[in-house]
Specification:
The complex is a heterodimer of chains A (291) and B (276). Chain A is an alpha/beta fold and 291 residues long. Chain A is 27% helix and 28% strand. Chain B has a domain of 191 residues: Rossmann fold (3-Layer(aba) Sandwich), CATH 3.40.50. Classes of the chains: A alpha/beta (291), B alpha/beta (276).
Chain lengths: 291, 276
Amino acid sequence: MRTLTLGLAQIKTKLGDVAANLDKHLEYAERAAAQGVELLCFPELSLTGYVLQDLVPTVAHHAAPDDSVFAQLLETSRKIDLVVGFVDEDRRHRFFIAAAYLSQGQVVHVHHKVYLPTYGMFDEGRFFAWGDSVRAFDTRWGRAGILICEDFWHASPPYLLWLDGADLMLFCSASPGRGLDNTDRLSSARWVEHVNQAYASVFTNFVAHTNRAGFEDGLNFWGGSTVFDPNGDLVVHAPYFDEGLTVVTLDLGQLHRTRARLPLLRDERTALVMREMQRILGGGTEGERRN
Amino acid sequence: MISDGKLDINPEVARKILTSFLREEISRAGLSHAVVGVSGGIDSALSCFLAAEALGPENVLAVRMPYKSSAPESFEHAQLVLEQTGAQSKTIEITSMVEPLFEHIPDADPKRRGNAMARARMIVLYDQSVAFRGLVVGTGNKTEILLGYTTLFGDSASALNPLGDLYKTQVRQLAGAVGVPQPILDKAPTADLWQDQTDEGELGFTYERVDQLLYLLVDQRYRPEEAVAAGFERSFVERVIALVRANQFKRMPPIVAKLSNRTVGYDFLYLRDWGT
């Protein structure tokens, strides 16, 4: 049986203290490796904390061997694959919310968050540059893709990853809990679980979501990390709110079985999508605004 | 349409978040203790219960601060909170603090006197905060904060507030669930700043009614005419909107006049948890 033992590191972070957060990453990686985890995912901005505001330029790093923080993470990635969240500063000194996939001492992929929520309680567009691409990449367990929080509140990034070959979607969040009502979970948790289950169902793939725990001032991060399988079934659900490592072994053969039954990927009319997108965005009078 | 249960909360979810909030945010300040002023009312009772659950009752100092005209019932109800939570306790009368001021201002109306008493209590709590090495836990709820039914730098002063995003009717629900004693749940809310004062008598409407309206206006972003269409009297809607707007100053730190390129309050932006 082809399997992947996945770890979801639902951690608390120290706001703006990269050294302390790095220590926690290395400690979790060691613990996870000891439990047989092959790929360990951390949440959004796991090396820095989330509400950074004016701290952004002081916590930025670059995913490369000559970066002091990444040198240690890359060394660790020889034992266990890692997805880590950080602030990426490019050569022109633009700052991105980023997540890096590290494996066998190499930086395999870096994703820059393409949707920066700047409304209500969120102010990301004030402090960060917008990412400009959505790409899948190859891992030892097949093709994967990374999205960060608001990226998957929009339908297009997961769709693009699907078409680019991602059978394993790795979603990272630092999602502040909100929407207390009389149900057993916050409405923010309910929403995220709904869409993750929906993506797994309609794309017939694995969707793993790793969320933050803990607080930043009055904001709670609700944890509740999940994995849904290609049938849209829940495989694992980490506790709400509490920090901890959740380990699950995925049966990758489920991709074969589900798609034999339900060939949604085979039947996807990408040429039709392309034609219609060109019509809609291509300047016709009834078209959507360009963006 | 109005009473559709939208204000109902799951008390266990709220309890989990609020006790974790108190524990984590107090420890990030490098401390493990809390100080709560306990009046005998439902809000401070709930804050005290939550703090005791979060930190352990031995790490919570509940302070009673009666004035000579405070209702004896308030003191007894505060006693129930101390007994049920097992928190450490202290009683510090504020009469001898505020009377010398009142001698200087014999014409002061009940509002001025009430404000002075609320601020005297703040002085006591912040002094105890140093002695007990604990943070002052707030007791103001969302209804009070929105309506400005609070004394600036008085009862509104705290280091962190677990109740500030719960309407009064939600406070009642959570208080019942965590075991706040029944007599406190049942009695009419009062600031007890003068005899026979009740919140609802002073405000001119019930918490239940105003909470439903505030929920629509604030949480659901209803326009005033939509709130009227939902069954609220126009004059009530207008009065509540006016109160919320007029009291914005109580919800903000003092405004700073900007002169430089980087100014506290405008473009010097850090959370309080900076570095922790």
